Amino acid sequence: MDHYNLQRFVDAQHSCYRQVQTELGARLRDCTRLVTAVNGRTIEDIFGYPDHLKFHWSMTLFAQAAADNQIFMTALSRYFKAEVDNQTMQLLPAAILAAPNDHWMAK
Fold it and tell me: Quick check: 88 and 61 in contact, CB under 8 A?
């Protein structure tokens, strides 16, 4: 494969990744809004064990990774007293934490 074809392949791969990322981001935000709209139930009531823990991990991750993270921060505030999951924070690559304006998750 010559350089031109390799570059086209990389560009196509990047375009596909960006499309999946954008669609996932929109669905994730919609689902998070639905969960935060539930009244009168704890997060464990909503998801049960251990899925309520997975929700905490996910909200922590996306609150750190998304440029527009307000919905994830809202979920953390509503169900976890605004506390992030410490184990998730320890596992995040230093690059994500060091570059808050260069997020990998699209709006």
Answer: yes
